[in-house]
Design goal:
Elements lengths: L1 E5 L10 H9 L2 E4 L15 E4 L1 H6 L3 H16 L5 E5 L9 H12 L3 E4 L5 H8 L8 E4 H4 L13 E4 L4 H11 L10
Parallel strand pairs: 1-4, 1-5, 2-3, 2-4, 6-7
Helix pairs in contact: 3-4
Length: 185
């Protein structure tokens, strides 16, 4: 059994009741990364293991994620299964959890998904906007590979995964194909 658990967007108070219950009843949890504000608030006695060392050992995110997927699938075959926790929601802007679920189902390993609040809800709350009907949510890593932004110029867009200056600069270059340099962002 593989349990894919969402840790929410950061604040430990935003863990869902179901996530807290699963963590409270668990002996151990595996994290994609220990760098999440909810981790220090985990139930006492919970053994926390993380895959952070894979980021240091591999050359690319795709190699890191492939190793994590393989490891979680192996752990999921144990008698007690595995709980694998990720920031936010397991299926929102997360590369490993959907691939784990897909491959586990192919291998006949049961999968349980414990929902988590994604980064989207607090973002739209902070902006004071309803994202429907037109807001485009775009992954910066996909956007920088495009020659032209994949959304209408008059629609609001939320670009996620801008985690460093290089990605920000590349996003800016792609956006200039659609917007003038002076366009407010």
């Amino acid at each position: 059994m593989i349990t894919l658990l969402g840790l929410g967007p950061g604040d430990p108070n935003l863990l869902t009741r179901q996530a807290w219950q699963v963590l409270s009843q668990a002996d151990e949890v595996y994290l994609r990364t220990r760098s999440h504000p909810a981790v220090p608030g985990f139930p006492s006695g919970l053994k926390v293991r993380a895959f952070d060392h894979f980021y240091e050992e591999e050359e690319s995110f795709s190699a890191v994620y492939a190793r994590i997927v393989d490891e979680v699938l192996t752990l999921g075959q144990r008698a007690g299964g595995v709980i694998y926790a990720v920031p936010g929601h397991p299926f929102v802007a997360e590369a490993t959890a959907p691939e784990i679920a897909r491959r586990a189902r192919q291998a006949g390993i049961p999968v349980q998904v414990v929902e988590g609040l994604s980064f989207l809800e607090p973002t739209f709350t902070a902006l004071g906007v309803d994202p429907l009907p037109l807001t485009a949510v775009v992954d910066a890593l996909e956007l920088v590979q495009a020659h032209f932004p994949p959304f209408p110029p008059d629609a609001p867009a939320l670009i996620a995964q801008i985690y460093d200056r290089q990605i920000a600069a590349e996003v800016k270059i792609t956006l200039t194909a659609l917007y003038p340099d002076e366009h407010p962002v």
